[in-house]
Each structure stands twice: as structure tokens, then as C-alpha cells.
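Review form for a predicted model. The reviewer records the input and the model, then writes brief findings.
Reviewer: anonymous (R2)
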Amino acid sequence: MNSVSRLFSVILFSTILLLFSGCTPKNTSDNTSETEAQTTQQQEENANEDLQTNTIGAPKTEIDFSRVQVVDEKRFMEEVCEFDDAGRYGFKCTRPIIIDFTAGWCGWCTKLSPHLVDMAQKYSDQIAVYKVDVDKCPNIAQRFNIQGLPTLVIVKPHHQPERIEGYVEKDKLEEIIQNKLLSK
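Model under review:
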């Protein structure tokens, strides 16, 4: 095999590896991809700043239900749900709730998040929206048998919880709230 054929084989093999690994080769002579990456990162940071949430340290006495409640395991057990040794659970809610099981690396979760913020604001006097990061709260995710993301668990007081797996468009989410959580 001559050196040109060997070089061609190495280039072809490298290209195939890059394609199957999901990577794209960076063009060092063009700063476009670097600029696009910085723009995307800036947009994500801006979106995170726009995402109105109450964090773990929020005061327990006055909960602002116009914001998504980001909870850790302790706060989840105190405010939302408790489990007994047999794995049974009891919801503590006096209002309908949506529990959003999510992760920072989940693209569909990121896309769904602004819809939940909008619904928390719109229906703040009627529902509560809780956000559970499955990477930070693996025990809760396991108790609810979360297999895929995003997963929403909707709970109407004194009713069985329902699970919605996958991304939900904003209008469909509002329909779910109206028909399943707020209907008499």
C-alpha cells in the first residue's frame, strides 16, 4: 500500500469515527463554529436566568407558587410526598401539582421547562409545579420508577397520580392542567 492510499485510509477512518461519535471536525481556518458555540452558550445562560424558579433555600412559610419549586430530596419529602418502608407514598398536597422529573443534560427537558414556568405563573393560585433533578435526587426518581426524561407526574388531591412521559407542547400542557388537574 503506497503512502497516498495509507493517508486516504487514515483520513477516511478518522472521518467515520467522528461521524459515529457525533462529533464534527472543527475548521481551524473559520471561527464560525466557535462563535456559534459561544452564541448558543450565551442563549442557554440567558434562558436559565429567565427561568423563574424558587430554589432549595426558599422560605418554607411562604411558597411562591408563581414559580417552579426546585426541590432536593429533603424538601420534596417535607412538602410534596412521603414514602413508607413498604414503598407506598402519600402526597401532602392540598392543591393539584405537577412534578417535573428532569436533568440538566436532557434537551427535551430544557425545551419543556419554559412551558412549566408559564403554567406556574398563569395558574399560581390553583396549582403548584415542582422540579426534581433525577441526578441530584436519584432516590425520588427510583421511587417513582422514572425510566425516561422528561417525565411529568400530575397529582390531583385524593386521586391517583398520572404519568406523562416525553416532551409536551405548551397548548397540550395547558389542556392537561385544565382537564386533569382543575376539572371537578
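Findings: Strands lie at 53-54, 68-71, 81-83, 89-91, 97-102, 128-133, 151-155, 162-165.
Further findings: Residues 52-181 form a domain with the Glutaredoxin fold (CATH 3.40.30.10).
Recommendation: see findings above.
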